[in-house]
Amino acid sequence: MKLTKTPIASIITGLALSISAIAQDNTALEPLITDRPDATESPNAIPKGSIQVETGAFYDTFEEHKIKTENYTYNTTLVRYGLLDNLEIRLGWDFTESSTSINGNKIDNIISGFSPLLLGIKTSIAKENGLFPEIGLLGHLYLPFTASTDFKPETTGVDFRFAFAHTLSDNSSLSYNLGAAWGSDSPEASYVYTIAFGQGITDKLGAYAELYGDLPENNKANHLWDAGLTYLITNNLQLDATVGSSITKGQDLLLSAGLSFRIPSNNIK
Questions:
Q1: CA torsion sign, 79 to 41 to 194 to 181?
Q2: What value does the mean pLDDT take over residues 187-211?
Q3: Cα–Cα distance between 83 and 90 in angstroms, integer?
Q4: pTM for the full model?
Q5: Cα separation of 190 and 183, whole Å?
């Protein structure tokens, strides 16, 4: 999202030792542009040699026919590394705990564990020029052998999307994604879309509202919305909070909070 703004706990611990670099308000760098908290990915690759960590937690729930499912995802961590001026590599991992209640009584079959490791790249394709948007392309593999038993698919998942961003004014922007995903042990493609409006409230505080969803080839479409706030503590450190739900059936409530930080390259003075 082109505003002052959507998994790996052991890596976070090591990176936290560089907190002095994170907290520095390095004026040689632009404020963070992150791929959280919304579902819309930005078209920007991070600066060459920099490491950017985007992590958080979320809760979502859905109830139908007196059967309620609750999911707690304790870390949704994405680590991004600027390999070239317009190319980054991406590594992500989630840890989720899911429980089910029937008529208000929680049953014992709680499942938990890591989802498949995400391995991907993002490249910047074109800069914004008048009505022509900024464009990026990103893609991921989801490796089943890295997942816990409860969340292990039999086949490798794949997705890709084109990311676009328009500057509307000095403090507002419009971003959107179009792409496709293959997963859940199915050859069926699911076409993905997102669109997000971002508004800068102050130099530090930003807000966004978003529609997103997917359109499986042989199933009903899923449409959702969310909205949230971001707070830029320094150019290298940002907090966020989000609330959302689904428009079609599938999600009653989404709550999320997180932080993002960047460790600049030593070549940036």
A1: negative
A2: 96
A3: 10
A4: 0.86
A5: 9
